[in-house]
Amino acid sequence: MNERKDVVIIGAGPAGIQAAIHAVRKKCDVLLLGRIERSALFSAHVENYACVAGVKTGEELLLAGLDQVKNFGAHLMEDDVLKVHQDDEGFGLELESGVTVFTRSLIFANGTARKKLKVPGEKEFFGKGVSYCVDCDANFFRNATVAVIGNASAAIDGALTLTGYAGKVYLINRELMASKELIAKLEESSVENISGTWVTEIAGQDAVQTIVLENGEQLALDGVFVELGAKGAMELALELGIQLDLDTMSHIDTNKKTETNVPGVYAAGDITGHPYQMAKAVGEGCIAGMEAANFAKKQKRKDKS
């Protein structure tokens, strides 16, 4: 099943919601992808945002924002993006539900936070067998034994990708939380799914050699991929050749119009760097939504001419 949109926004936090509001009000067909509970704002309390009196919960503000998005006519999908590519007509996004969405313009608004396992050995072996990006590092583990840690779509997709590189792939999770289509792909693969447990330690000498599970069992392996939640903005951005900031390589580089180096791709919110504040996210989301809508309209006119 394929769909085509004018503007697709990845991330349902304040930047993504504001972008959707402004894009759809420019009479564009807009899709907002994401789950509000993954936004950094969701569990926060807000009392420093202009024109909002008293203390509001992030959840309250995000739910109100989603109502606005729906009322203005944008489409919402609580789907994770697994892969993104560029084609002659714009961009294609493969979703965990099996749907592929094509769009004329794309906005990254899915934050930068990288969740950690917070277990002994994780920090010590980062870069020595511990990785947070399957797409970046899979090639270093050809014919090796690896484990992917995580419950959601990023972990499952990462494990499936690694079957094309590693000799043996484990998937460690408490409970799989992804679409039935993606879980079905996992069950048909060679990945050994170890469910109902978690990792308590990563161990080794100069590099990763074992992981320890909650029941004390140890698995001998060469690499550990931590993939918690949805695929991160950095991995998706790199698939399109989007330029990162040269100082830290941890944020997407944009200009004042929120444009990236790839025409038709914009970024807003935490993904563009400090300060990590709702006010900044909303402001950039406003600009990104309008600019992406304008770009999509220009492309539509070209298509008709």
Automatic annotation (TrEMBL):
Pfam family, one: Pyr_redox_2
Domain FAD/NAD(P)-binding: 5-285
Organism, scientific name: Desulfocapsa sulfexigens (strain DSM 10523 / SB164P1)
The name this protein goes by in its record: Thioredoxin reductase
Gene3D superfamilies with a match to the protein in the record: FAD/NAD(P)-binding domain
Superkingdom classification of source: Bacteria
GO molecular-function terms, A-Z: oxidoreductase activity
Keyword annotations of the record: Flavoprotein, Oxidoreductase
